Lipoprotein (Nannocystis bainbridge), 199 residues
Amino acid sequence: MQKIHSFLALPLVIALAACGGDAKKTDVKADAKAEAPKADAPKADAPKADAPKADAPVEMIEHDLASADPEWAGWVAKGPKEGKVMQDGIKGARIAAGRAAGFDLAFAPKHTDLATLKESLEKGASASEGKLKLTFTTETPEALEWTADGYGAVKYNFVRNMKAGDREVTCKNNYMVGIASQESLARHKEACDTLQKKG
């Protein structure tokens, strides 16, 4: 008789264990989820990744461009104090500083065909298969400006045909790297206007 009672009680025990056990496990899991902090939940005091940062002050001084190429003997332009003068392409002069200053400006001893340059830039963006988008903000015979949006960042760029004294030159940022902010863009453009021949 005892065996029969045990036999009859067995399905009930299994059923209770199944219901109770699963419910208990579900409750434990639910409690664990409720108590565990969400990994992707932003902290109230954490700064936003896309919050714009104010540029650090940059001390600008006059640099002698002669060391870049004999073409620039007697020519000077302003750049960050820690900037270095180097050659850029054929007979070009460049002032570049590190990441802290975020400055990279070049001068060419001739005007640039901006229509051809734009066409080349567009071909490059097209070859990126949608990873890079260019938006042209200024397009005149004297200046080409654009933003490059891609690879996790938006960068500003410009190329300007100008006259320094009686000489035709191009002033441009290093658009292979780009400029990180509008403040820095303005600083680069202001430096273009400091190009002059002394003596």
